[in-house]
Amino acid sequence: MYNKIVKLVFAVILITQPILTAKEDSRSSGQRLLRKSAEIKSCGCGMNHRLGVSIGRDGERTITDTISYYTAPSYVEDYSDFMSGYQTAGDDSVVTRIHLLTAGVINQFHVMTRAIDPDGNVVDDYAPVDVWIYGPAYQQDDEGLWHSQYPSMANTYDGALPSSIQLLMPYTIPTIFSNSAPDNHFNAEGLWDPWAVTSGGWNVFDFPTWTLDGLGINVSSDSLDVPDDMLYVYAGYNMASTPGVDNIATIWQDGTPDPNDNWSCRSTLHSIAPEGGAWYGIWNGEYPYHHLTQAVVQYEAVPPFVEQLPDFSDTWAEEKQVWADVVDLDGDAFACTLNVTIAPVGANPYEQQHAMSEDDEVEGRFLANVSMDVGDTVNFYVRATDVTGRSSSSSLRSFVRVASPSPSQKVLVLQDGTRDSLGGTWGSIYTSATGLNPLFGSTGYYVWNVNDHSGVDY
What we know:
- The chain has 3 domains: 36-299, no CATH class; 305-400, Sandwich (Immunoglobulin-like), CATH 2.60.40.10; 410-453, no CATH class.
- It has helices at residues 207-210, 221-224, 450-453, and strands spanning 4-7, 12-13, 24-26, 31-33, 37-42, 47-55, 61-68, 93-99, 104-111, 113-116, 126-135, 138-140, 146-148, 166-167, 173-178, 203-206, 217-219, 232-239, 248-251, 266-271, 278-283, 293-299, 305-308, 319-327, 334-343, 350-355, 357-358, 365-371, 377-386, 391-393, 397-400, 410-415, 418-419, 445-449.
- It is mostly beta strands.
- The longest helix has 4 residues, at 207-210.
- The protein is globular and about 85 Å long.
- It has 3 helices and 34 strands.
- The two termini are 41 Å apart.
């Protein structure tokens, strides 16, 4: 079985900041056309944001963000219930650490669960739970390092600081979750569409319906005492007991480990049994899996976001043009900055900032050039900031400038151990995992291994 369960072991992490979104131009009118929807990813964890804009009768724009962290199943077999064995009774808790793009209100929490009876059978029934939001998920120390913290813990996970996490509502709210049946979640075309079913799909908890003030859960830099780009909170539930109802609601996970996840967001679980009082994560030994949960957040305004960014291979070039496609849902003027850290061989890294200019040909694309010497490792990200001060940053990218071939050398491109001119397979030229066939061992060839250089420079 590929699943492996471990106690969470990391404590101090460096967070990459949010990413993604763009402005479109109308070249004929000279005015920008606002996007009404976008799908982006934030921070380095790959948290997915499906954004939509609605305009009320009063002309006010409202931005709704459905935040999810899972890989959508392609087949029933993609669902995983491995962590259900760690949910028994008492206050066993399920949480997903999510990242808000900016200050907002959490209105809904969506969950896929199994209803399990006292004999361990899946039943078409319901189970009692308590739903809640906790935050902040990170606390910064005096040196600027961020420490993870979890509900119910007195200190940060590494024990370095007293925890600052708190319940972001007056009390946890009791409700029931019903059985989510994966067999019902695929439409006639075989596509995953759990919203199409009348029962056995998502459990939807609507906070305004059940809070005393009729409002959702406010999350802001003021309420959490963290910067606007560190709005990480936990959305989750714990087991509850109701007289006459002995069922429990165990969580479904996706069955696809995520290689792009840097763990800044997280699906985790607190279990009394079997070891007691421990927070657990689920992974395949290298990459994590995720709970099938999502949250719906409402924003009054959002910053511009970097929607796409190049992922360069290593290069021979002295200069690279970095581009960023930026989406805007708000309409405020904004600017983009290319932030670069260059690490020369045997010398200290140094930083650069470059103002990016808008492309004359591609709408919503911003450009800037960066120069480097042979041996330099170049790390870069793009930050988009509007006139109100709201901003977001892309994920981090990296490449190396390598020595170019001599004029007399021919370039031999290797891909996955075969002689491959970016498409054709010409047979293996390896005599071992690391060695070339002697025919190609002379200095007349400059060998470019695609796997070693993250692609092919062009």
